[in-house]
Every structure is written in structure tokens, then in C-alpha cells.
Amino acid sequence: MSISAGKIAGLTAVSDKYGVIAAVAMDQRSSLKKALGDDVSDEQLEEFKVAVTEILTPNASAVLLDPEWGLAASRRRAKNAGLLLAYEKSGYDYNRPGRIPELLPHYSVRRLKDAGADCCKVLLYYSPLEKTEINDEKHAFVERVGDECRGFDIPFFLELVSYDPAGGNEKGPEYAKQKPNMVAKTIAEFTRDRYGIDILKVEIPVNLRFVEETRVFSGDKVYSRKQAMEHFRVAAAQATKPFIYLSGGVSTAEFTESLELAADAGVKFSGVLCGRATWRGGIAVYAKGGVGALRTWLQDEGLKNLAQVNECLKRASPWSTIYQARAA
Question: Regarding the domain with residue range 2-326, which homologous superfamily does it belong to in the CATH classification?
Fold first, then answer.
């Protein structure tokens, strides 16, 4: 499979020397505001993002930021780190059913590229169980972004997060039973060329806390370790494009064990975009002691967390095994 030289250049910019994407995610907005407190200021959001970016990116291949509060941080990233910028509004349209996505009204792919982005990222909440008309609207939404990224020759990362349209507990065992099939079907849909996606950012297809014989097992079994490994393989088999894993807000221990299980299953994933698993513990530190305390924590615990993730990426596969450059 071939993609344009410009897209190859963008992917190279956000990858390590082995062609693996070892990126830190710091594009959280509404969730970060909520965690830091309702009275958090714009300056404090920028300050938090700058600290995380400055300290973690020397050991990352890239950083994902938002153009609302993250541009100051983008200018403080390490020279070795590429830049992904988020194109979507935080959350979704809360006035409509179906978790409909919205783009930032004052940005376009042209403007993200002008702001220094090597790649563009969009988050989409998606469920194969959703109403047809809702999913059709989401398909058209992704097609438009894909065409815009093609036009400006910049890689398009689509982050896919599943949900329960019936409103069930998405962290519970009943949803865990559905999740492998939902992740596999979602990958099968968006790996199609019509969407123009270059890298799929996908969920771990199982909830590791319900996998027997794991270190984070909760005691409530939904899958055996052997079954979980098969779910990894089935989901991965749907992809015709390179894919990376998102951490989904779990702990470093849970995320790294998930990556180990994927590698043990023989899955050829091309890296991670890992956010809260590396820096979430710094939120309470910042709230209590300010940016100085946060920086101290990041230099210690934050870098240790990132090192654990990076160790797992030694078993990842470069995206270049799928893509070859051609003339733009």
C-alpha cells in the first residue's frame, strides 16, 4: 500500500528511529478542567500542558495537543518530538443523541498545518450498535475530514472510542462481553480507503480487569487469557491500515500489561498515543502544590511511567511495513 510523500514525511516526524509511534497525548480539555477543578483558569491549563510537554517529550516521538490551550506547549516540546494537533471539539454535541462529533469552529486542516502540525487527529465516539442514521452521519463526517487531509497532504489519525447506545455501564462486565466485537467491527469499518485515514488509534479490545491470569484481574472473569489474546488477534485482523493503541485513561500498570498481552498474541501494532496513563497522577500534585510540584513529580513518576510504556514498544512494528512512499 502506498501513500503520498507528504504523508510519509508527517508520519516520520511523529515516529521514533524505528518507525514506531511513541507519542504522549496531552489534548485533554473538558476532562482536564473537571479534574483540576471548576475554577481552573486558561493560564493554568496552558501551564499544566507546558510542564507535561517539556518534561516528557524528550523521551517520546511526538506529542498530541489541542490548539485551544496547547499551542504554547507545542513550542516547548523537545526537538526530537513531532506534533499532532486535535481538530475536534472536546466531547461531542450534548444536545443531540448519538454522541455526534463537532470540529473546532475556528480551525481547519490548513490552519492546523500552519500552526505546526505534522499530523491531524480526530476523536470519534462510535458504536456498531447505534442507529443507522446516526452512524451514517458519522461516516460522512470522517469522509470530509479525510478529504481535507488529503487536500493538504497531512496524515489523518482517527481515534475511535466505543460506547453503549443503551447507556449501560461501560466499565462493567456486561459491556466487557460486547467490547471485543464492537472494537473489531469499528476497525473493519474505518480501515476502508474511502475515509482517508492513515493511522487508526484504537482501543484495547478487552477490559483487562476481567481477564483471568492478569496482574490487574478484578476477580470477576469475563475472558480467559487465551480468549483475550484471540480477541486481540481478531480485532487486529480487521485492519488494513497501521494502528496504534490508546490508553483510555487506565493506569500505567494496566496499559502496559495490555500492550504485553497484544505482543504475546502476535499483534503487529505500530505504537501508542498514551495520555493519562503517564501523567494522571500529576493532577492531584498540581492542584495541591502548583507547577513546581508537578514538574518534580513528572521528572520522577511521570518519566518512570513513560519508560514502562516505551519498554513495551520494543515489540511494536513500524508503520512502514504497510506503507511505501510514492511521488506526491
Answer: Aldolase class I (3.20.20.70)
